[in-house]
Design goal:
Blueprint: H1 8-27, H2 30-40, H3 47-59, H4 68-83, H5 94-99, H6 118-152, H7 158-186, H8 190-193, H9 199-226, H10 241-249, H11 251-263, H12 278-299
Length: 302
Amino acid sequence: MLIGKGEAGKTVNSVQKNLVSIFDQLVDDSAKFADWTIQYFEDAEEDFQTDILRLIRNYYQSDVKEHAILRTCLQLLWWEYLLLNKFTIPTDGVAQLEANMESERPAAAHRDMLVIPDTINRFLKLVILQKAEEAAEEVTKNLHDMLFKMSLSPKQSRATSDLALCLLFGLMIYLGRTHNSLLLLANTPANEIGEHYPVAEARRKIRDMEDKVGDYFLSFHKYALSRKSKAPMTSTEVSSRLERHAQDFDLVGRLRTDIKREYESERPKSLTTFDFQMDTFRYMNVRRLCWKVFANVEDSRS
């Protein structure tokens, strides 16, 4: 990657465009997306949240303009995934990289070792972080607007309720994995990250994020659902492509039958208690947050 004088902005835009193109290929192919979810949630203990993420992707319709925000939500998780993983150089590109570096490969380094250029990774992370922040802002704003409108009108659109549910699941997954990153950072030796990050500080930030973001949106969602009228929608109201898809897909029905039936035995005994054990927090925390969303659906009249 060569950045000429005064061309940093152009390079950043080009990299972002290429990364978005890779995501587009992923999200537009349900099989590829399903394969990626196994990379995103690596362990068998994360199957519950994996299936929820796949269900959200299957609900998404690229030809429905109202689903654009759902695409952004899935893209947010893609950015988060890229932020937490280091970029490596393909084997056939190592020689070209080394030819343009001032420093030389250590004599003891194996020829087949992974090459992870630190400077390039830092540059890419900065580029990705900007897109992640933009996506997170767009998702939270749209979710807030949806919940506000749902709270004002008892006659709620099924499609709007579904979209709000998908965005809330996506936001809780993102929040839970951010929690995981903070705890991991606090348990990483100071010499590896250049500073000491106390575990107590990580726990404080995790609780603060849950209170200000997680609990806020979960409570808002629960209230919005409680406002829903039992009166069915008229045939005219369900005639749009958006509403017909919502009726045919039956998102809540699938959650209550397929997902709940499969994973009820894994439901955490407490949805409010944190378990900060490093060996289980990674998967239990996201699972706990997803079950908190699930509890809203169970308590609703939808």
